[in-house]
Each structure stands twice: as structure tokens, then as C-alpha cells.
Design brief:
The protein is mostly beta strands. The chain contains no helices and 11 strands. Strands 2, 4, 5, 6, 9, 10 and 11 form a 7-stranded mixed beta sheet that branches. It has a 4-stranded antiparallel beta sheet with strand order 1-3-8-7, with no helix packed on it. The mean pLDDT is about 95.
Length: about 120
């Protein structure tokens, strides 16, 4: 069974920083990519940042230059370093694992989400 668990959210003032962590556990799967998404009340869930097993990264325009996604393969953990936070970054942040198991098509596994609140 694959599990995805986020941590590191909280309340921070505008201009501050937070680091989110996403730990993956389980067996029998191959990671294709991991990504962070966020969803504010009343909004859709949007991609924030993504990293592939090859190390390629991609960011939403709204966070480029402020957020950095990285991974620790030994720990099966992905991080999202968020700097220069703005009130509009307030949302529930979700980690998504895209993985394959054997010959089956890739599947997406989501964490439970972690709240990030940026006060002005």
C-alpha cells in the first residue's frame, strides 16, 4: 500500500518562509514524479511545483523565484521550500505521487494536505 504524508504547514507572516515535506512509503512501485498542488477555498486545485525522477523541475509562474522543490531519494521525501510568502499563497497544500506498479498504467496518490496560512 502506498502512503503519502505531508507535514510542515502552519501560520507565517508575509515575507516569511516555510518548508513542506512529503514522505512516501510502501513497496512495489516506481516513482515517475512528485508534485505539490494547492487549493484555496472556492478555488480549483492547481499545480505549484513538480520534480521528476530525472530531476527536472517545473513551477507555476506565481511561485517562480520564491519556491524550490527538491527531493531526498534516500528518504523517499520531497520538499517544498517556500520563501517570500504572500497572503495569496494561503491554501491547503497537497503532495501528489505519480507512480507505476509493474505493467499497470501509472496511478496518482495524494496526501491528506497541510494548511499554509500567510498573514498580511
Amino acid at each position: 500500500q502506498v502512503q503519502v504524508v505531508e507535514s510542515g504547514g502552519g501560520l507565517v507572516q508575509a515575507g516569511g518562509s516555510l518548508r513542506l515535506s512529503c514522505a512516501v512509503s510502501g513497496s512495489g512501485f516506481s516513482i515517475i514524479s512528485m508534485s505539490w498542488h494547492r487549493q484555496a477555498p472556492g478555488d480549483q486545485r492547481d499545480l505549484v511545483a513538480q520534480i521528476t525522477t530525472g530531476g527536472s523541475t517545473d513551477y507555476a509562474d506565481s511561485v517562480k523565484g520564491r519556491f524550490t522543490i527538491s527531493r531526498d531519494d534516500a528518504k523517499d521525501t520531497v520538499y517544498l521550500q517556500m520563501n517570500s510568502l504572500k497572503p495569496e499563497d494561503t491554501a491547503v497544500y497537497y503532495c501528489k505521487l505519480l507512480a507505476s506498479k509493474g505493467l499497470r498504467p501509472p496511478s496518482a496518490y495524494w496526501g491528506q494536505g497541510t494548511q499554509v496560512t500567510v498573514s498580511s
